[in-house]
Predict the structure of Phospholipid/glycerol acyltransferase domain-containing protein.
Amino acid sequence: MGLVAYLKTQFVLQLLLGFVFVVSGLLINFIQLLTCVLWPIDKQLYRRINTRLSYSLWSQLVMLLEWWSGTQCTLYTDQATVDKFGKEHVIIILNHNYEIDFLCGWTICERYGVLGSSKVLAKHELLKVPLIGWTWYFLEIVFCKRKWEEDRETVFRGLERLRDYPEFMWFLLYCEGTRFTEKKHQISMEVAQSKGLPKLKYHLLPRTKGFTTALKCLQGTVSAVYDVTLNFKDHQVPTLLGIINGKKYMADMRIRRFPVEEIPEDEKECANWLHKLYQEKDALQEHYHKEGTFPGPTITPPRRLWTLLNFLFWAALLLSPLINFACGVVVSGSPLLILGFSLFLIVASIAIRRLIGVTEVKKTGSSYGDEGSKKQN
């Protein structure tokens, strides 16, 4: 292990990274709160400002992936598809197997200029998560409880509000509804069998309601659906803690573009189209497990300096007073000040660890398999 790699594993440096993210995030959330006065005056200006504020926060996580850990993302797609990236409103369908699948999606968003305006159909519990949920609230993210009777009006209203969004947006859907685990997969395939649907090996049965609703509500705004199938070289199982420790991963993403004109408008036929798509995604994953690659030409978009420069700006702004204060506490020799600062560090480390815990597979709760959830499709 080299010196740089060793330093990346040290708790003090990781705590400083977390401090910059949390404090800058709270400052950004406060500024976002102030921008609410613009909504009744100029809604589009409010949106443009919040797009850039959210970029300043999310790009710090992308920086960890691209510059801290050095993770590489290779796209398996054609140049004609890449030429449309960042130039149209689209719905993204991504498999939900990994703790950092959202980060891999964000790094592609960043490289094509749509990170700040990226959207997601998120579970309602995330609205209560500091920084993440709060930033998403100001970005008009659509939150759902995954109970259609309760979500119907909220989802329709939230999606229709995005029809006039001024920035090109990529709207992410995890159609499986929850992250893949063996237990959930077993339950999902029991549901597939009961419905007479083909079984999937690498995915859960997609929940079609969110997709058909999003496509209907954003009709005339969204011009295409991007199907993204993600996997990692050498059977790697990436984690956010691994990223923070500086571990490098090799991500491969098979991207296919489907113009909305090719997708049936009828809800039942659209649902069948989605089921067929997931059968194709399963075949792609089978190919990857056998060959170690996806089929098709490869493109590796270069990382941009903006994420690194943004982090360095916040680090310079926030770490200097923190370090000066810490030195003052040590020099003072006051047991009370030292104890107080130590408690602050402990609380900060716990808070950061809890934020990381939101992404961990073993801690992602879900009602998947309950009788109520089985009736959602």
About this structure: The longest helix spans residues 306-332.
